[in-house]
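Lecture notes, part 5. Sequence design as translation. It can be helpful to think of inverse folding as translation between two languages: the language of shapes and the language of residues. The source text, in structure tokens, appears below.
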């Protein structure tokens, strides 16, 4: 079975083509870039997605060496995300499903991040640390669905790092530059904010900026902001492992690229004699392959929708997703 999956929840318009067992035949994308100094403008991002959709599908089908008749299902990202972007993806997916005369399968974006992580790393029952620009969640499967055990109470960790970097004059994307500067830094006192299983980054961000304004060298503040942010995440992840009696940690999302975060989580897992894996970069950011793979397993568990009844849900919660395949 071959599935063509469409990702379009935010910046990325992605098309993945995936076969049974998670074999990725193609994973193409084009990323909307807001004009300099601006954040994402949803209408503009949707216009971008509409403009590139045909070309990216062609690119994906060419690189996968498949023809329209080889595609068995079309899957799309139904949410969560920005409504104009979600509509662009859904309408295009409906068009393709009608054109190929194949079933249409709606997929949850966050669950898709987890499923592509499981299949590419081989961790079957992990606690998932999903850290991107907008998201910071500790998720695991329990009693029939993926549940969020801990999350940010304010901004996402990637956005917090980027915002700190922007305020001290670094260029986008700021977080990788913070990681580099941090290598030469020393510890300065910063607050540490974990409440139960939830995290808060914005107060630490404010305090970091204050320390820098008062003359603390940038390297030291970069080092310290990473140390507190990542220690907080590691603490909550460890508590989730202990609570659930699990021994695997899967790290995904754009911030998963950070070596210091990987090191901390890995050390914690080693001490507990557990397993730790990072989802390969190609599949840890937003991508079409994750939607296609989730489309296959969801379809095999009986999920599909008539194109004329397809919908989007911009706030579709992870724990509301019906998981028929585990
Ligand atoms: P989502 O829609 O899932 O929130 P996103 O649009 O934020 O995704 P991603 O590619 O998953 O996109 O994540 C981007 C974030 O990852 C940015 O905030 C970026 O600064 C951050 N990031 C990238 N590299 C690093 C790094 N080395 N260390 C820390 N953060 C990083
Ligand atoms: Fe994402």
């Amino acid at each position: 079975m071959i599935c063509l999956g469409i990702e379009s929840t935010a910046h990325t318009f992605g098309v993945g083509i995936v076969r049974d067992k998670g074999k990725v035949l193609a994973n193409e994308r084009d990323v909307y870039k807001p004009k300099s100094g601006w954040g994402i403008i949803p209408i503009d991002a949707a216009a971008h997605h509409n403009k590139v959709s045909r070309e990216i599908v062609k690119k994906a089908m060419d690189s996968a060496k498949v023809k329209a008749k080889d595609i068995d299902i079309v899957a799309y990202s139904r949410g969560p995300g920005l409504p104009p972007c979600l509509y662009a993806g859904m309408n295009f997916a409906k068009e393709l499903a009608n054109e190929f005369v194949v079933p249409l399968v709606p997929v949850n974006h966050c669950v898709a991040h987890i499923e592509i992580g499981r299949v590419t790393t081989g961790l079957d029952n992990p606690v998932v640390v999903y850290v991107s620009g907008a998201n910071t969640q500790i998720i695991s499967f329990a009693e029939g669905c993926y549940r969020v055990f801990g999350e940010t109470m304010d901004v996402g960790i990637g956005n917090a790092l980027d915002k700190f970097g922007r305020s001290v004059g670094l260029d986008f994307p700021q977080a990788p530059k913070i990681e580099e500067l941090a290598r030469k830094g020393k510890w300065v006192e910063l607050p540490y904010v974990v409440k139960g299983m939830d995290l808060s980054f914005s107060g630490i961000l404010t305090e970091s900026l204050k320390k820098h304004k008062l003359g603390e060298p940038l390297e030291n503040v970069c080092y310290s902001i990473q140390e507190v942010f990542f220690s907080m995440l590691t603490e909550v992840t460890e508590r989730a492992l202990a609570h659930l009696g699990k021994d695997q940690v899967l790290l995904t999302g754009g911030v998963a690229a950070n070596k210091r975060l990987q090191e901390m989580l890995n050390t914690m897992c080693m001490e507990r004699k557990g397993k730790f894996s990072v989802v390969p970069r190609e599949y840890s950011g937003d991508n079409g392959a994750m939607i296609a793979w989730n489309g296959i397993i969801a379809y095999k568990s009986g999920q599909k929708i008539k194109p004329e009844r397809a919908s989007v849900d911009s706030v579709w919660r992870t724990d509301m997703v019906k998981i028929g395949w585990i």
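The translated text above is only one of many valid answers, since several sequences can fold into similar shapes. The chain has two domains: 2-109+283-320, 114-282.
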